[in-house]
Amino acid sequence: MFFDEKYILFLWKVYIFSIKCIIVLFERYNLSMKKVVSDSEKCKLFLTCLQHAAASARWNF
Fold this sequence. Notes:
This protein is mostly helical. The protein has helices at residues 5-29, 33-38, 40-60.
């Protein structure tokens, strides 16, 4: 199965933005994965951050 070049570029952008978002989130709130998973408020914030990263990558495409 061959993927279109633009589709691969889109997936790469989503990946990069997600990683940037995770790094910023963890630095800003001084989090560890145990704290994120155990606290539902932080877990929601984490998921929202990933959704924004994906949306940002989609619009920058």
